UniProtKB/TrEMBL annotation:
It is found in: Cytoplasm. It holds the Pfam family SIS. Homodimer. Catalyzes the first step in hexosamine metabolism, converting fructose-6P into glucosamine-6P using glutamine as a nitrogen source. HAMAP family: GlmS. Residues 2-220 form the Glutamine amidotransferase type-2 domain. This is Glutamine--fructose-6-phosphate aminotransferase [isomerizing]. The gene is glmS_2. It comes from Kitasatospora terrestris.
Length: 609
């Protein structure tokens, strides 16, 4: 949510800032802006409502500088507008600030600064920071890093910030508290960003700031220190992912690329974790031995959006394979309801980005109450990963498109591994363990088979895309699939979609069924097949249209169209049934001319409440 970039060095900063912002645009995309300092130190700011492309078009021809900061925004305080876009400046136009996060005591600080003479020109909480830093610099020759440090001491909230001072063009000051900041180390030049995606084209050597840390960044290096001015030493690390992982790689959209990357992502999630000898899974990062795991009586899974639905599939897997009661709940609800934390419950936080504020807050609440939390997280070293007691990294690779696909699938795989591990410690037989191990190994091939139907699914999507709404139904294992399928369609195509348990249809929503509201029905070949076919009959009897996603095509009188998926083991079938729904949503969105990778009103990682 919101992206930050910064450059200092011998080259023109604007080139990097614009390209970096484009790479971070998936995090927020309702306005963008840059500020640069020329060698003489003159501060130039350009910002606009709209996309980074609009900013590039709005830049004056002579907008040059060798020190600069930039921002792409997802509005929280104040509507998307030119005035509310970052960077924000003080009244003397000396200081410029870009900020991710929320300043909770902004109103109070604004009132105080206004009384002291500051004139505010935006509705944002961020502008407070610009005036506050300027107030601490005063008219004197103070160091920018000291002024930022002093200003942040007065601030309550979360932030990742980058600050420049026209009187000190040889430095940029960055700080982190709850919103990531990464430094990129170049040859006689330095970069900073809220996400390595902006940096990989320029450098692979990075330094992640910790919460409560600041850095003063100069062309020839950096110094990190705490809010109490204590210097801390941070060793650079090398970014693992290839530059190509951050490109569309010849696909029309990141979303399509990420859907097609799923076989490889699943292989990485499974890599080195299957134990054929004992028919179990090895999960080195759990930090729980077999005895501790045996004491767990319940599993509670927390996540937001698709992470929550992946958690629902995970809960089913744990209950089925380990026979431990498991339940998934939106982290955004959990954290506000004074949850009862039990010693024999294992809490699992799910997050692709590892930054989602509601999920992080849920983890902190559990830990504060003495509970034990594992993370199922894609982004290594992210805030949620660090906060948890242990966990499973997905290794799905960077996910850029706002709607989650490969991270969703890898999350379900991670839960299958956890459930297998748990199950084999409890009562899952070696034979059943072997059955799951070999089914997991076959999944990448099964996913490839489904992806080969891309064109047929595109044709079906075009047939169904122009309806005002769609119903998604599934029974028991199929219900989380229906929920995620409906979520994906809404997110990227803006077609209204509702998910219902197939068993509940006749208790209300059957009243909605008509030729104008088609149903996507999940019809696995399992012990509930007959029940599902009966439901299809009930829909067809009300002139409803049915698109079945099934292992065997239902009779023509029960379904108008069918997408066939390969059969896995019943516990793992939901994961495969979900793949065609991703393609269906993608192609429906394309058919409707939507901005697939950057759907309206959304952002990839929601780092605010
Ligand atoms: C946002 C995105 C969703 C995503 C959710 C959780 O709401 O729009 O697509 O599923 O955040 O993100 P996380 O990074 O925690 O998995």
């Amino acid at each position: 949510m919101c992206g930050i970039v910064a450059y200092i060095g011998p080259k023109d900063a604007t080139t990097f800032l614009l390209e970096g912002l484009q790479r971070l645009e998936y995090r927020g995309y309702d306005s963008a802006g840059v500020a640069v300092l020329g060698k003489s130190g003159a501060l130039k700011v350009c910002k606009t409502k709209g996309r980074v492309a609009d900013l590039a078009a709005a830049l004056p021809a002579r907008f040059k500088g060798t020190t600069g900061i930039g921002h792409t925004r997802w509005a929280t305080h104040g509507e998307p507008s030119d005035a509310n876009a970052h960077p924000h400046t003080d009244n003397a136009e000396r200081i410029a600030v870009v900020h991710n996060g929320i300043i909770e005591n902004a109103d109070e600080l604004r009132a105080k600064l206004t009384a002291e003479g500051a004139v505010f020109r935006s509705e944002t909480d961020t502008e407070v920071l610009a005036h506050l830093v300027a107030a601490h610099l005063g008219d004197g020759e103070g160091q920018l890093e000291d002024a930022v440090r002093a200003a942040l001491k007065l601030v309550v909230g979360t932030y990742g910030i980058a600050v420049v001072d026209s009187a000190q063009p040889d430095r940029i000051v960055v700080a982190r508290n709850g919103s990531p900041i990464v430094l990129g180390l170049g040859e006689k030049e330095m970069f900073a960003a809220s996400d390595v995606a902006a940096l990989v084209r320029y450098t692979r050597q990075v330094v992640h700031l910790e919460d409560g840390e600041l850095a003063v960044v100069r062309a020839d290096g950096f110094r990190t220190f705490t809010e109490d001015a204590r210097t801390v030493t941070r060793q650079p690390s090398t970014v693992d992912w290839e530059v190509g992982s951050y490109d569309t790689g010849g696909y029309e959209h990141y979303l399509l690329k990420e859907i097609h990357e799923q076989p490889a992502a699943v292989e990485r999630t499974l890599s080195g974790r299957l134990d054929e000898r004992f028919a179990t899974a090895h999960l080195g990062g759990l930090n729980l031995d077999a005895r501790e795991l045996r004491e767990i009586r319940r599993v509670k899974i927390l996540g937001c959006g698709s992470a929550y639905y992946a958690g629902e599939m995970g809960a089913q897997l744990i209950e089925e394979l380990a026979r431990i009661p498991a339940h998934s709940e939106p982290a955004s609800e959990f954290r506000y309801r004074n949850p009862v934390i039990e010693a024999d419950t294992l809490y699992v936080a799910v997050s692709q980005s590892g930054e989602t504020y509601d999920t992080l807050a849920a983890v902190q609440e559990i830990k504060r109450k003495g509970g034990r939390v594992l993370g199922v997280v894609n982004t290594v070293g992210s805030a949620i990963a660090r906060e948890c007691d242990g966990g499973i990294y997905l290794h799905a690779g960077p996910e850029i498109s706002v709607a989650s696909t490969k991270a969703f699938t890898s999350t379900v795989i991670a839960f299958a591994l956890l459930a297998l591990h748990f199950g084999r410690i409890h009562d899952l037989s070696p034979a059943d363990g072997r059955r799951i191990v070999s089914a997991l190994k076959a999944l990448p091939g099964h996913i490839r088979q489904i992806l080969e139907q891309d064109e047929e699914i595109a044709e079906l999507a075009a047939k169904y895309a122009d309806n005002a709404g769609m119903m998604f139904i599934g029974r028991v294992r199929g219900y989380p699939v229906a929920r995620e399928g409906a979520q994906k369609l809404k997110e990227i195509s803006y077609v209204h979609a509702e998910a219902y348990p197939a068993s509940e249809l006749k208790h209300g929503p059957l009243a909605l069924i008509s030729p104008e509201l088609p149903t996507v029905a999940l019809v696995p070949d399992d012990e509930l097949l007959d029940k599902n076919l009966t439901t299809l009959g009930e829909i067809k009897a009300r002139s409803g249209r049915v698109l079945a996603v099934a292992h065997r095509a239902p009779e023509a009188k029960l379904a108008d169209h069918c997408i066939l998926v390969p059969k896995s083991e019943p516990e793992l079938d939901p994961l495969l049934l979900n793949i065609p729904l991703q393609l269906l949503a993608y192609h429906a969105a394309v058919a409707l001319g939507r901005d697939v990778d950057k759907p309206r009103n959304l952002a990839k990682s929601v780092t605010v409440e």
